[in-house]
Amino acid sequence: MNEIWTEKYRPKNLEEVVGQKHITERLKAYVASGNMPHLLLTGPAGTGKTTCALALAKEMFGDEWRGNFIELNASDERGIDVVRGKIKEFARTSPLGKADFKIIFMDEADALTSDAQAALRRTMEKYSKICRFILSCNYSSKIIDPIQSRCAVFRFSPLSKEDVENYLKRIVADEGIRIDDDALDGLVHVARGDMRRAVNSLQVAASLGKQITLDVIYQTTGLAKPEEVKNMLETALAGNFIRARDMLDDIMIMYGLSGQDIIRQIHSLFFDLSITDSEKVRLVDKTGEIEFRIVEGSNERIQLEALLAYLVMIGGSKR
Fold it and tell me: CA 220, CA 99: separation in Å to the nearest integer?
């Protein structure tokens, strides 16, 4: 297991990209025409933005793609000096070979400062004849309007459970791994539409042995089993605060979870509890308040126990 599987199994062309057919069809049209506008790829992590940018460059330029493509991560190089220096230097030079233009791919472009984005807008405009920009981000609202108006916007959606499951099955078959059906379902649940997370989690689990079980999946992904968290919540609703508190201790210690990790799982399970809609509304409101306190630096154990106490009070009003 010498390779990182997210790179080993990264799609080599647009045809292999899964779950984003509505986007890849439009990108193939650009390849066929030999021309493209500036692009803004936006959407959740692990949905294929970087993969599509690389595949587009490879199909557009063929063997000369490395000389006509540069990838930068804006979260590392986010200031105006980078735009005025490295980016402008690459943008102003002529493309290699028979290519009509070069491509600058800026990953995590929403990390660029406002000044850097303003400078980038001018660079995009000035060198558009010999250079195209592909900007990738999780939140398009953090990209200034002048840049958005210069780009064709592609919105990536989280991958479906079927797409993630089928891709993982392909890797399992290629690597000769044995995985239980419920472990595969758990892996898909943990990924939540993020293919990179799914593949990385599979590789970590496979490193522990050839047989992957559900227990292994949850221990290596830093998440507790949903049924254990739900059981803790139901115990609190039943009025047994001390038992629910002990279960919280066991879950956090066994899986090594932080307060923010467990609060996200608790939130996702509220809607499976047998309580009224108005009580779910009160719980979500209270959970948002407690999550904010944890993020701001409050003691996570006290805050989580306060949430369990609130569940006990909601359950008490029904008894």
Answer: 45
Q: What is the 3-state secondary structure (H, E, C) of the chain?
A: CCCCHHHHCCCCCHHHCCCCHHHHHHHHHHHHHCCCCEEEEECCCCCCHHHHHHHHHHHHHHHHHHHHEEEEECCCCCCHHHHHHHHHHHHHCCCCCCCCCEEEEEECHHHCCHHHHHHHHHHHHHCCCCEEEEEEECCHHHCCHHHHCCEEEEECCCCCHHHHHHHHHHHHHHHCCEECHHHHHHHHHHHCCCHHHHHHHHHHHHCCCCEECHHHHHHHHCCCCHHHHHHHHHHHHCCCHHHHHHHHHHHHHHHCCCHHHHHHHHHHHHHHCCCCHHHHHHHHHHHHHHHHHHHCCCCHHHHHHHHHHHHHHHHHCCC
What pTM, to 2 d.p., does this model score?
A: 0.81
Structure confidence by residue, pLDDT tens digits, 87-125 = 777 777 888 888 889 998 988 888 888 888 888 888 888
Structurally, how many domains does the chain consist of? 3
Do 136 and 29 lie in one domain? The reply is: yes
Are 132 and 165 in contact, with CB atoms under 8 Å apart? no
Are 9 and 137 contained in the same domain?
A: yes
Residue 1 has pLDDT above 60, yes or no: no
Same domain, 151 and 9: yes
187: containing domain? 161-221
Stretch 312-316: mean pLDDT, rounded? 84
- Does the pLDDT of residue 205 top 90, yes or no? no
Over residues 213-254, the pLDDT tens digits come to: 888 888 777 788 888 899 999 999 999 999 999 999 988 888
Please give the share of the chain, as a percent, with pLDDT higher than 70. Answer: 95
Residue 112, helix vs strand vs coil: coil
